[in-house]
Amino acid sequence: MEHTLFTKNVIEAAIRVSLVAVVIYFCAKILQPFAMAVLWGAIIAVAIYPLFTRFKNLLGGKSKLAASLYAVIAISALITPTVMISNSLIDTSVTINEQYQSGALTIPAPSKSVAEWPLIGEKTYTFWNGASKNLENTLNTHLPQLKSIATSAFSAIAGIGGTVLQFVLSIIISAVFVASAESAYRVIINIFSRLTDAKTGKEYTDLARDTIRSVAQGVLGVAIIQALLAALGMYVMDVPAWGLWSLVILVFAIAQLPPILVLGFVISYVFSVAETTPAVIFMIYAIIVSASDGFLKPMFLGRGMETPMLVILLGAIGGMMMSGIIGLFVGAIVLALGYELFMKWLNSDVSAQALEDQTEEKNNG
């Protein structure tokens, strides 16, 4: 009898688990196309919520109106520089094509200092010098490599267009999140509380929130500032395709690579076409822009958090190497939570040992 009842319970439990698994699977499949947009929307909402609160207060506490206006402003702020960069690329491409067709396209001769660049100096100087003397012959000689680069560039541009559309959707989703931020905050606390306990659940929710804001300010924020400053300098110096160079600098800065790796080529070009004084001023400006993360990151990264800045930075870099830009946040959050869990476990053992020592001393006394 007991054996039959046990078998029946096992079968019923297996059926229930299977049904739950099927429902979860189909829910995941349905939401999969929107998963990245929703995740980015949540990250953006957490990052901008303090600013959104001030904006909402200016509008008399009207959350829906504030969220709608925020979405319009944020989408405009995203589309406007995208259009400017696109126009810069199109104008540069048209100008280069017209000059090439008419035979008026010339490449300035490189400075001999280019040959002294580490690793790529000699090859860069040879290619650049050959192009300045006979552009058509140089292009024909390297035609396969140039076709491959062009194909990769067009694929990257198409990918950027898709990314912009995804961010537009993410901004709309973030507007929904910030409009109901208090409810979402309670839901996250409940999730962490179910996994741990009520007190720790709120602590880990706040930790995840502060980590997202720290990474948004200290990594993405600094990268955007550097890219904008570099774009301003290149625009003033009338550097061709300044929009493309700015985009590359943004990617390098997010990847925690110094913008001088890109600005170095731009500096060489400016010295080749501009007078010495403005070229030197631009070089100094570019060096300052590249080195600005040295004092900007400590100002923003890890501000207001007990988690060490190095933990957040390592998590952001490692996460990005694994999962791209979204890994900046996921990696930082996971590593910060892991660090806090480890420290909590470590301190609890130390506290327990200290309490045991005090009890023993009291008994002996």
From TrEMBL:
Listed InterPro entries: AI-2E-like
Record's bilayer topology term: Multi-pass membrane protein
Main localization (coarse): membrane
Protein location: Cell membrane
Keyword vocabulary terms for this entry: Cell membrane, Membrane, Transmembrane, Transmembrane helix, Transport
Keyword Signal included in the entry's annotation: no
Transmembrane segments annotated in the record for this chain: 34-53, 65-85, 153-179, 215-236, 242-267, 279-296, 308-337
Pfam families for this protein: AI-2E_transport
Entry's family note: Belongs to the autoinducer-2 exporter (AI-2E) (TC 2.A.86) family.
Protein name per the record: AI-2E family transporter
Organism (species): Psychromonas marina
